[in-house]
Every structure is written in structure tokens, then in C-alpha cells.
Amino acid sequence: MKRKNSLPFLVAIVGPTASGKSALGIWLAERLAGEVVACDSTQLYRGFDIGTAKPSAAERRGVLHHLIDVLDPGEAATAGGYRQLALPVLEDLRRRKRLPVLTVGTGLYLRALLEGLAEVPQRSEELRERLRATTAGHAPGHLHRVLRRLDPEAARKIAPADEQKLIRAIEVCLLTRKPISEAHRAGRDPLEGWRVLKVGLMPPREALYKRIHARTSAMLERGWMSEVQVLLKEKRNEAAKPFDFIGYRELRAVLRNEMPLEQAREAIQQATRRYAKRQITWFRKEARVQWFTGFGDNPELQNSILGHLRAHGVATPRGRREKRIIGRVASPSGMGKSAR
User: Fold this and answer.
1) pTM over 0.85, yes/no
2) Greater confidence, 180 or 337?
3) What are the boundaries of each domain within the chain?
4) How far apart are CA 85 and CA 110, in angstroms?
5) Side by side, which strands form the sheet with 338-339?
6) Are 11 and 110 in contact (CB under 8 A)?
7) Is the pLDDT of residue 321 over 80?
């Protein structure tokens, strides 16, 4: 077994949407012989590009990106599925002595990758349908009350209005005949063989909201509406999960004449602000994160984070940076390709 200080590093960048994780990840990867590994439930899907804030080919600046555009819209994205995709990517990076730089928008996916997942039963659509049907004849909060009886610990962690999580928790309790919190504590298979360093971006709240608003408008100007139009014309399954992502559902409503564009813009901005709040709440509970105040595209902050990583032992192999830059200039055809 390797000593801990001889293991390769893995850098994970966490923070709310629009905080500049992608910009920082690319910047660090350029300087530390790294490649970006997206850890985001929305960026997995092909065709859903502008609204999921995938970095463009120009923004990637020749840095290889992994786990972007790996699922069709009809496929299910899950934390367990993400882990299965990520493990061979990490092994490939280890073999090639490249630094994995994770840009983390979905905290559950990072937790699944680093801590492993409990062995819990697959979804039972029949049971789920029965649980949904029971809500019709009961007062609001029925599912939460059911979970409180089955597993008070899990019920304390799930909001009464979060039907999806409540149904899953009840489903696991009924299928395993034990509390889901107990199932989650057993059988985990944590990631081994890496030294994990987590850095967090925490811009001032008002500045973050301004950037969210500006980014929404910029996305619309870049052709977000046209992207949704093309997806619908391709006769994609509109019940597929990506069509319910923030922005895609609102712009689909605009195209159906169910909502004016300005109302959709405001709805997208509001939903994104709420999403950012949820991300902040989640990431603040993440262990061993070194937090930095500001945005990931700020040069001063970038250098502070680089200094922090180097102080912990992350270093560019001698000659690696110069070789990468020469290779990138000589082979422009390789720029912007996503690892599939």
C-alpha cells in the first residue's frame, strides 16, 4: 500500500453556479499539468449546452474535459452512474500522470465519488406510483409524516415539500425493511489512492446574484432559445430529465406561447438564485474545504488558490507546462474536444 504522501493529487473545486468554477478549473489545469473532470448532473447530457454553462471550445483553451456530453437526454443521470463513469477516467489520468481538476456543481456526485454509495435497492416504479397516489387523499406533508415514522433521522434531513427525496427514502425503507439512514451508513466503498484537496469559491451574495442575472441574459443572447428550439424539432422526448433543467422548461413554455420571454428571463434568474442558495447550503457542510471569497475568473484569487495548492505539495512536473503549450500551438485541431 502506498504511503499517503506518495499518492497523486486530486483537486475538487466547489461553489455555487456562476461562481467561476469552470474558469478556475481550466486556469489551474493549464498550470498544473491537469485535465478538467466535470462533476455536474446537467453537463452530462448531449445537446443541452448553453443553459448548462458548458465551457465553449474557445473557453477550454485546449484543456481536455471529461464527463461532458456522455449521456443522451433519455438516459438517467444518477450519483452511482456518475461514479461508474468517473472511476475509469481517474485511473486514466493517474496512468498518464495528469492532475484531475474536478469542477463540482452537484455536491451529491462528489460525495458519491469520494465516499462511495451504500448498497440500496433499485427503484420500484410500482411502489413509487402507489406512494404518489397516497398523497391525493391526505393533507399536505403526508409523505414526510410517513418517513418520520419509518426513519426520524432521515426525515429531519429532507424538506416536507421534497417529494422526490421523500419517496426514495420511503421506498428504500420499505424494500430493505430498515431505515434508509442505516442503509446509507453501511457498505460504502470510498475512493482510495488519491490525496484530495478541496477548494471552494464563495463570492459575495449580491455580486453572485448580479452575475447570475447577467449570465442569464448573455445565455439568451448566445442563442439559448434557438438551442431549445432545435432540441424540440429533433423530436426529443420532452419528458426526459434535461427538459426540466432550469431555463429549458421556461424557454419551452415561451416557444409554446405559454409565457412571454421577459417573464421567462425573470423566472430563470429567480430559479438560478434559489439553486445557488441550495448549493451553498450543501457545500458548506462539505468537509475539509478551503474557502476563498470571490469569483474563479479573478486573477488575484486564481493565484491565491494556486499558491494554496502548491503549499500543499501540488506541483507541475518539470518541463510539462512548456511541452503542453508547444503541443497546443502545433495541434490546434485538438482544441475543445470533450472526452467521451
Assistant:
1) no
2) 180
3) 4-118+194-208+288-339, 125-185
4) 12
5) 289-292, 195-201, 9-14, 99-104, 34-39, 65-66, 338-339
6) no
7) no
> How does DSSP classify residue 68?
S
Q: 12 forms bridges with which residues in the sheet?
A: 102, 198
User: CATH number of the domain at 4-118+194-208+288-339, please?
Assistant: 3.40.50.300
Each residue of 208-246: pLDDT tens digit? 999 999 999 999 999 999 999 999 988 777 888 899 999
Residues contacting residue 163 through CB under 8 Å, at least 6 positions apart: 132, 135, 143
Cell digits of residue 241: 430529465
* Fold observed for domain 125-185: Histone, subunit A (1.10.20)
How far is the C-alpha of 126 from the C-alpha of 123, rounded, in Å? 9
Q: Where are the beta strands (DSSP E) in the chain?
A: 9-14, 34-39, 65-66, 99-104, 195-201, 289-292, 338-339
* Alpha-carbon gap, residue 273 to 201, rounded angstroms: 16
Instruction: Give the integer Cα–Cα distance in Å for 147 and 169.
Output: 7
